[in-house]
Each structure stands twice: as C-alpha cells, then as structure tokens.
C-alpha cells in the first residue's frame, strides 16, 4: 500500500525551492506561504501514463460513493504501522491536520489532541462517523482538484490508502 505524508513541520515544504519576494518586510512564514502558493498546480513530472489514468469503472466516483462503505481497506497491522508513523512524524498538540481521502476510520493516534483535524472524502456519512474529524468536506478530486482551503494553513496533510484513486495525482 502507498501512504503519503507531507508535513510543513517535518520540513516537506522546504523541499520547494525558495522564490524571491519583492516585499522586504514580509515575515518568514508569509514568504514561505507565498512560495508554496506560487508553486501550487505546477506539474513537474507526470506520475502516471495515460493508461494508468484510465479507470476500470468509467462511472463517476460520486455514484460509487453514494452510500457509506463502512469497511477497513487495510488490515490491522497496516493501520498500527501507519498510526505509529503519524505518532512519530506529525507534530502533536496544537497541530492542524488535513486528512485527504479520509473515511470513517482514523489512523491518527488516539492519545494525541490536535488543534484541528479537517477531513476530506466522497461520502458525508462515512466522514461523519470519524471521531477525529472536527469538520469535513465532500469533494471529488478527480473532478475538481482545487481544495476549498487556505494555503499553508495546515501543519500536516495526510493521504493514506486512497491515493491510488487519483487520476491526476500530480495536481
């Protein structure tokens, strides 16, 4: 299984080349946010071939997720390993976390209190059952990859178990 963890606090955002700013009095955080925003949407390389972007089921994803699928997509051992990775890599107390392509099961450590956890998915019924989410939104990222969230507002962005459903993962 593929799991991606992007964290500003772990330095992932610093992997982006710095862009100069014409405002000398901007704070370091503002310059960093501007660099991230200005690079948003830029595709540096294609991850999938044209065949790899073709779904086996051509119907809209929204139809597939019309009703809650209350199943675990991975076994308990994988969940424990992923939770341990989040425990080690995601800043705890006070961190703001975005959980992309989430479901009714949270992989975040139960003992850590985050300032805010926002979930994204394709079924509101599933997301409503996730006890870790402070709020959530439903959006098909294969139809619209632009997130309705402010830039550089999260300390960690998580996407586990479901990234393979994205037809344009670069975006």
From TrEMBL:
This is Methyltransferase type 11 domain-containing protein. It comes from Nymphaea colorata (pocket water lily).
């Amino acid at each position: 299984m593929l799991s991606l963890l992007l964290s500003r606090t772990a330095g992932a955002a610093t992997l982006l080349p710095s862009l100069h700013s014409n405002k000398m009095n901007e704070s370091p955080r503002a310059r960093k946010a501007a660099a991230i925003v200005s690079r948003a949407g830029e595709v540096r390389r294609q991850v999938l071939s044209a065949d790899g972007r073709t779904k086996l089921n051509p119907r809209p994803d929204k139809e597939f997720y019309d009703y809650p699928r209350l199943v675990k997509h991975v076994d308990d051992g994988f969940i424990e390993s992923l939770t341990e990775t989040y425990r080690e890599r995601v800043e705890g107390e006070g961190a703001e976390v975005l959980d992309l392509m989430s479901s009714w099961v949270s992989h975040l450590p139960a003992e850590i209190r985050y300032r805010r956890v926002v979930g994204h998915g394709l079924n509101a019924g599933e997301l409503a059952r996730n006890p870790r989410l402070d709020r959530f939104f439903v959006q098909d990222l294969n139809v619209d990859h632009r997130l309705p969230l402010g830039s550089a507002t999260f300390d960690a962005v998580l996407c586990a178990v479901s990234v393979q459903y994205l037809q344009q993962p670069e975006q």
